[in-house]
């Protein structure tokens, strides 16, 4: 799963690009990535200012799964 860091201007690039519709823009500029995120990384690739990252929980899970 991915998350949006502080400072998102709400341009909508990630929302438009998400293949499963997991990203929503709420009141103001609040952008949230829902639990239906499939971790494909499209949102991270299209963010023009690099404010989308993997959530720390997922990074920990990947390290555990790989035996690191």
From TrEMBL:
It comes from the Bacteria. The keyword Cytoplasm does not apply. Signal peptide: none annotated. Keywords: Iron, Iron-sulfur, Metal-binding. One of its GO terms (molecular function) is iron-sulfur cluster binding. It holds the Pfam family Fer4_9. Residues 1-28, 29-57 form the 4Fe-4S ferredoxin-type domain. This is 4Fe-4S ferredoxin-type domain-containing protein.
């Amino acid at each position: 799963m991915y998350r949006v860091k502080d400072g998102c201007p709400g341009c909508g690039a990630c929302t438009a690009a998400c293949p499963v519709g997991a990203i929503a823009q709420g009141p103001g500029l609040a952008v949230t990535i829902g639990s239906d995120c499939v971790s494909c990384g499209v949102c991270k690739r299209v963010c023009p200012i690099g404010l989308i990252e993997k959530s720390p929980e997922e990074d920990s899970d990947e390290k555990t799964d790989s035996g690191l």
